[in-house]
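Task: sequence in, structure out. Protein: Glycerol transport system permease protein.
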Amino acid sequence: MHKVQNNRAWWLILPMLLLVAFSAIIPLMTVVNYSVQDVFDANTRYFTGTEWFREMLNDPDLHAAVLRQFAFSLTVLAIEVPLGIGIALLMPKKGWQASAVLILVTMPLLIPWNVVGSIWQIFTRGDIGLMGWSLRELGYEYNITASPVDAWLTIVLMDVWHWTPLIALLCYSGLRSIPDAYYQAARIDRASRWAVFRFIQLPKLTNVLVIGILLRFMHSFMIYAEPFVLTGGGPGSSTTFLSQSLTTMAIGQQDLGPSAAFSLIYFLIILLVSWVFYTAIMNMQKDNKKQGEA
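Result:
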């Protein structure tokens, strides 16, 4: 017997969908409008076509910023995803210990982004900061204002501290949703700890990992407040990421046309890479499911 689905509930969320679509489309169309014009003042504008896009695509500073951005995003993903899975596997499953650990793990996520930069700015100072003072005492000349390597590694460490809990919480929720029957079958078959992780836990974490990786990639690719507060983009341009370059161009230099073209290119890069990540992970999930059925 064919069951008729009642889709009337969609009418309840239709006003919100229209509101979100309207609030997203209007700014996007404004950016598109600026990207094909040369704006001199409120009444003087000239159509430029794709000139700003060609200029941005041939800009060596933009190329360098894109490389820095990809290097940073891939680095933090390579650290935070395995680390988050490991933390989730070690977290208690029940009792007051589980509640206490969840609170401790969640705390970094509650701190605003600009405050995170301020905290780490103090933390890394050589005179009063615990990290900076400790490294100085150990004989390492740690200075994020003079050494690009120190600044880069500090921003990576700051991001790992701030956002690994998100991956850990998502993985923890995924692990808690696995039925006990799977673990009972694994114990009967005398499966090793690695086999349980490889064939039970990791496949069941695929969906939450897709969400976590996409969220972390998009945020890391748009990171602005933390490195701006901590290093200001320096030393030189070693920690100047795409968002800061865009802000400088749009607000500092008032180049509305080039910055609008820049922002559209920025958006398309994020959209394309997110789609690649999603497609690759879903294909891996399909392959694992076929191997399990075989």
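The chain has one domain: 67-289.
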